[in-house]
Structures are given as C-alpha cells and as structure tokens.
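Predict the 3D structure for this chain.
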Amino acid sequence: MDEVKIEKLVYGGAGLARTESGVVLVPFVLPGERVRAEPVRRRAGMTEARPVEILEKSPARIEPRCPYFGQCGGCHYQMAPYEFQLEWKQAILREVLERVGKLKPPEQIGVISGEPWGYRNRSQFHFGRHRLGYKMAGSDRVVDVSECPISAPAVNAALKELRAARRDRRFPRFLRQIELFTNGERTMVNVLDTDAARGVARSFFVWLAERIPGAADGELFYEACGEKFRVSHRSFFQVNRFLLEPLVEAALEGAEGEAGLDLYAGVGLFTVPLARRLGRAVGVESDGSAARDLDFNIAEAGVRAEARRMQAEQYLETLTETPDFVLADPPRAGLGKRVVKHLLRLRPRRIHLVSCDPATMARDVAALAAGGYAIGSVVLVDLFPQTYHIESVVRLHRAG
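Done. Predicted structure below.
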C-alpha cells in the first residue's frame, strides 16, 4: 500500500501522483490531497490504484450528494464543488490539446454550463440478482439504485415504477439492461440486453405503460431550440436537457454563407437550425434509425435541407462543390484520416467540430491545422456535470 500526493486531475476521472516507480492514478481524489492507495493494476511506468484512506483532505472537498457515489461507476467528481469541476475540466481540455495535438489553445477557453443535477434525459440501468441500478466502477456487479441525482425527475419516477413492476410475476426475469429516455412528459423504455435468445413481447411494454406513460412508444417527440424532433428508440440524442439550445448556439455561432453541411447529423439537432440560419443544409447520417428521423424532422420543420444516409467519408468523396460551412459532431472515434483528408481537399471557410472525446478531437484539430486551418475559439460545454466527460466545440477557420 502506497502513500501518494495527488498532483492534478487527468482525463478519465483519476487524480495523478508521481512516485519513484512512476505515475499512480487514483479515482475520487482531489489535487493536493495525501492519500493511502492500494494498487489494483500495474503497467510499465503506471499504476492504477484505489483510495483506501485520505490522510490529508483538500479544503475544496465536499460531501457527495449521492449515497452511491464511489460505488457506482457513473459519477467521478461529486466530492468537488461544481465551479471546481469546471475549472479542472478547462485545465484538462487545455492539457490534452497541448499534449496530444501539440497545439496552442486560445488564451481563454469558454465555458457553457447549466444546472449540475437532474440533467440527464436518458439513463441506462442494469439488472442484477435482486438489484436494479448501475454497474460498479471497473466491475460487472450491479449497485442497487433507488434514485439517481443526475437523472431527470421523469427518469427517476420511471425507475421507481420499474422497481415496483419487477416484483410482479409478469415482469420478464431475463432482462439485463434497460434504457429510459424522457421528454419530461413521456418516458420511452428501451430494452438493450437480455440473457435470452428471444425478444421482449410488446405486451410487456403495453403493460408497463400503465405505470410509465410512453413506455410502449417507439418514438419520442422532443422540443428543443424552437423545433420539435422525432427521436426513435434506436436514435442518438444529446442527454443534457438543460443545454441543448446553448450547445446548438455554440456550434453554429459564426456560421455564414448560403449552404451548410452537417456531418454525423443524428436526428437533425444541428441540421434544422443550420438550414434556418443559412437557407440550405445537408445532413449526413449513417445510422438507419437516426437517418429516418432526420428526414422526417427536416420535412416537418419545412426547411430547405436534405438528409443523406451514408458514412461521412462516403458523402465527402462524392462532393466537388465546397460548402460554405461544415459542422461535424462525430462519435468518440473522431473524424479520422479520411474525413480530414476530404475536408482539406474541399477547404470550406469554416469548420466547427463538436467533440465528446478531447484526445481524438485534439488529433483531428492538429491534422486540420497542419492543412491550413487556424483555431478561432474553443468552448467547453459541460453536458456531463459530476463526471469526467468533456464536450467541446472547436471553431476553425481557413487561414490565409
């Protein structure tokens, strides 16, 4: 068992300490704290450890709001005040841009934040033996959870009903993972995993809808940014119910021209406002469910836009006319070499990148910068308070 002094927080939720044998990563600690930690996993020059005792506490440390904090693997920073979390996320974002991308970030990284509790409109829960909740950090064991303070009230209400329904003999015992997605009035229930080869009968969802309005729905209509979006049960949608409009505004700020392109468009959260702003837009989405929602939402909004169901790189390969503005909101894997290559070939005036992974974002921005783009601004949009996850918007413009 080692005694270490925490130097800083790093991406992934851990605190970093340095010893003669290398770096030690410890979760649920704060910079400046002296901690007794037990090694869990060792690699060359690095040890992952768990905190056993905090010998010297940071004056910033507070009591976590959630009784499951430290057991459940969902939150990482509840022991820190929210402003403290934001400051460290800024520092981590800056450090990743410098270390991974070898980039010089703007002197000021903007911050957009909202209510740090009750923000999640979509939460996933796991079933264990006599348990329903979240998986324990680094384990497949399920922590029994009766309420989640970062989930929306409607999600918690549905969770309470699920726990009660589970005691009924009609409840399928082979469920392993379930998702609750709410617009505040209706809550869709999606089964994500079972331990049986067969699916779940629709009669189960109809029965559950007696307790949870919307449980049997295959789609949800979500109002955001003055628009109404259809979101089917397999389609992605941003989870922070308080920051949808600020995120869209941050992503589209400075967009200009006559035609815009939205890569990885999802159901059209950016595509529809982009079309209203510029007059014309194309949304590109490869997922079938999301692409159908995108097409529907464009038609319902009555904007001049079109949905293309294909991979971003496939669409860009066919493109010869340069769009005035490109927005890209890729998954964690980032843009990748092929998409960056085509963007550099097309050379739009502005490229705005929305990212949920600082490392792949830094890699992609570095490649675009090497190809003649300059960083105009970087904004941290804190979609995931109490966790280490970082959403950012990087606005790039063509240099020269």
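The longest helix spans residues 82-99.
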